[in-house]
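Researcher: Good morning. I'm working through a list of sequences from a screen, and I'd like to move beyond sequence-only analysis. For each chain I'm collecting a predicted structure so we can compare shapes side by side. This is the next one on the list. No need for commentary yet; just the structure.
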Amino acid sequence: MRIFKTKWFAREASSHGISDDELYQAIQSALQGKVVDLGGGVYKKRLNKNRDRAIILTKSAEYWFYTFLYAKQDMANINHRELMGFRELAKTLCQSL
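Model: Good morning. Structure tokens for this chain:
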């Protein structure tokens, strides 16, 4: 299993106090089904004691891409347009592997 994070996500995670170990543990729990499946290889996972949400892209259990992070207090959820963009990104990323 390989876990990647975008440069933007890495910076945001650091500013939110989210460690790489917590990101790894989140993927482990996602593999156990403790994640919200938004379809098309897009998943939403709670982080940082339920204060933040991460959007994770994958097409298999082999490669995971952390792409977007938001605080629950700032944004309730991603909108449909954003979801469609993440699905397209998941498709593109995973086709190139």
